[in-house]
Design brief:
single chain, 423 residues, alpha/beta, six-stranded mixed sheet, two-stranded antiparallel sheet, 17 helices
């Protein structure tokens, strides 16, 4: 970021926003405004992101793996990409993977998390609202006068969710008060239908019989053609890709999903890791049509080290119960050698800032701290002190270095206040 843009952001930020940014730095956390003001290496991230956008516009697959140690700025980089993606008209979801609550191999749980954490460029909060507005606008176009909302939905979307979206955009069947009393219309509960459809779209386990009632009275003609059950992880990954394509059809550039704590994938047992690696491979594999889907992962170096050390020749024994005389089967635990298969994936490795970059960051931090707490720090005196402080903690992680710098500015401000009182 150039100096003029930095000055404009500092001048435009409220006192509360500036103080919040400094307070979070003091606690070792990152802040959206702090990301805008203090990101170093943003030009390289911009270049990587712009290259990915070009590939997505050509319907080619794209992905990004941000690799770094703890405290080196992975979450900071994800937030920077999130802000840029929203500014470029992408839908964005940001989530933290967790081996207990949101394990990656259970992609239904991942799907629920990314749908719940979705953000839209125009500030819309609900995917249901975005879908309904988008359908209404699309159908109002003269060239779409003979089409239905089904023509807007990607064909590869799982049948369950395709029916849900059509039901959301369709009116409820009108029944007279007399008919509502008949036993065969006992499932006609129109007040429940919006709740059922919304929660089913968000990935919650709504039974098929409840969905079928909503589809029947929302007049979805095709809902009986295929099963309404959707349980397999691959089906939910297909749904994510189909939603990204749907967002493109609605006028967005696509769907950027940011997966933080990606190394948690390696904290599960070997069978779960095998499933997770295969899902990752389907996101990383070259030549795949993306439809606007751009996954971004944050990994530590330990993740790739474990991928390289996995026992890819290991098998498990499957006994044949139906025919006792048949020999048992040996089934490989992994479908492929992922270390070899991922040689060409896109990895952005984070490095510690150089000495000139730290000096620029120190100068920005001095300006930010002074504006946030309404004092006039002497940059010429403080900057050499802060550079010397960093040199004495050269091996510390960047997050700790920022906390040390903020604490140094706090002490300098307090000293100035005490000197003023003594005088």
């Amino acid at each position: 970021m150039d100096d003029s843009k930095f000055q404009n952001l500092v001048a435009g930020g409220s006192n509360f926003q500036l103080r919040r940014a400094v307070e979070r730095l003091r606690e070792g956390l990152f802040d959206p405004l702090g990301v805008q003001l203090l990101t170093s290496g943003g030009a390289k991230l911009d270049k990587i992101f712009d290259k990915a956008v070009t590939a997505l516009n050509k319907n080619k697959s794209s992905h990004l793996c941000i690799c770094g140690a703890y405290g080196q700025g992975k979450s900071h980089s994800l937030t920077y990409i999130k802000q840029k993606a929203l500014a470029d008209n992408f839908v964005v979801s940001h989530m933290n993977l967790d081996p207990r609550q949101i394990p990656f191999h259970n992609f239904q749980a991942v799907y629920r998390a990314v749908m719940a954490g979705m953000e839209f460029p125009q500030g819309d909060k609900s995917v249901v609202s975005v879908w309904k507005k988008g359908v209404e606008k699309w159908l109002s176009l003269p060239e779409n006068s003979q089409k239905t909302c089904l023509d807007l939905i990607p064909q590869e979307m799982p049948h369950r969710f395709k029916a849900i979206l059509v039901a959301m955009a369709s009116p409820t069947m009108a029944l007279s008060d007399r008919k509502k009393k008949f036993k065969k219309y006992a499932r006609f509960k129109p007040r429940e239908f919006p709740w059922i459809l919304k929660n089913a779209l968000l990935g919650k386990d709504i039974p098929a019989w409840r969905l079928s009632a909503a589809f029947q009275y929302r007049q979805v003609p095709f809902y009986k053609e295929h099963s309404l059950v959707c349980k397999e992880p691959a089906q939910y990954l297909t749904m994510v890709k189909a939603m990204a394509a749907l967002f493109q059809n609605l006028g967005f550039k696509g769907w950027v999903i940011l997966f933080d704590e990606g190394e948690s994938i390696t904290q599960t047992r070997i069978t779960s890791r095998s499933k997770s690696y295969e899902l990752l491979h389907k996101m990383f594999c070259p030549g795949m049509e993306s439809g606007g889907f751009y996954p971004v992962f944050a990994f530590t170096h330990d993740f790739f080290n474990l991928v390289a050390q996995e026992p890819y020749d290991r098998t498990r024994i499957l006994k044949r119960r139906k025919n006792g005389s048949a020999p048992p089967l040996e089934i490989p635990l992994f479908k492929r050698d992922y270390h070899s298969a991922w040689k060409n994936i896109t990895v952005h490795t984070l490095h510690d800032l150089s000495a000139p970059e730290w000096k620029i960051l120190i100068q920005k931090l001095i300006v930010l701290h002074g504006r946030a707490y309404a004092w006039a720090p002497e940059s010429g005196r403080l900057k050499p002190q802060m550079v010397k402080l960093l040199s004495s903690h050269a091996g510390a992680e960047p997050r700790l270095k920022l906390r040390l710098l903020v604490n140094h500015l706090d002490l300098a401000q307090q000293k100035e206040v005490l000197d003023t009182l003594i005088l």
